[in-house]
Here is the input.
Amino acid sequence: MTILSKEELGALQDSFSRLLNDHCTETHVRQWMADRKGYDDALWRSISDMGLTGLLVEEKHGGIDAGLTAVEAIMEQAGAALLGAPLMTSAVMSVAALRASGDEAAMARLLPDIASGNSIATMLITSPEGDWTENTIGISGQKNGDQWKLNGRAGFVLHGRNADVWITVANTENGVGLFEVAAGATGTQCTALPAFDHTMVMDEIELNDVSAQLIGTEGAGWHYVHTAIDSGLVALAGEQAGGADKILDITVEYAKIRHQFGRPIGSFQAIKHMAAELKLEVESAISAARDAAEQADAESDEASSSRYLAAFACADAYVRTAKDAVQMHGGIAFTWEHPAHLYLRRSRANQQLFGSSDYYREQYLTALGG
Here is the structure.
């Protein structure tokens, strides 16, 4: 792993922030919300050229291998800008699953194009009624000779319609397997799902006798998926912390210019107290997300507990900050034209993306031995 110094990490964040400030403004985000794709190809190419799609990919496959600390830092900026591109599902979760599999042939075949941004990967994990656990896999795999065929449905697939490769989880006779499926192959159907967060691209995918290639060892698939979800939780925590920080900044600036009774509303004690409490929430969320990434990269004994702490703390902090930001803005934040509700929608959707806050509180206590 290539450990980036504080200066290098800060420079990477600054460069990404400038890119998003120019090419992922609120105007852009609203345009992409109306587009079935949900993001811009030119921006994705710029993100890839910066090396951000290869942050977890080993150098021998064309990546940087900078670890989750770098991923978390980048996701803070992505969350602040409400970026809808498939960074988390392609550059983080799919890469983590492939690396966990130890399948050198699959990694050599898939990772170089993912690292370069020429290929987008996503994961088909749970059924349409599922909850991101091993018990709710909705796809089964059957082997005929040397050929694998997959049948079933997967729900809540991030960027299924935009992906080139579907990394698919399926039940087999010998346990859970992980498979490579070419997106749009014969026998596949991709249906767009409505999302509370209009910046989120989510699909349901149906497979009918679709040809697939086994990745890693049959029966070990859920271990690979668990690793992918763990990495996704750290990336998501960074996105949530960045989004919470940004909407708080927007709200504080508004409180300085919005006048009532002849004075800025930010001068009222009630607003000051709310802002101060939210600042504590946001700073705590940022600390939790960064600590989770650092503990994961260090492979410390506290990695699991830190990750689960970040999973519920960052989710809850984002929801509270976005909700209170709407209240502090007053009636204007309830209008479609104001960005506050976009952050509220993102916070609510992210809070449920890989499981509820209560679920991860339980996992946190279990990791602590409680």
Notes: The first helix runs from residue 6 to 23. The mean pLDDT is 94.
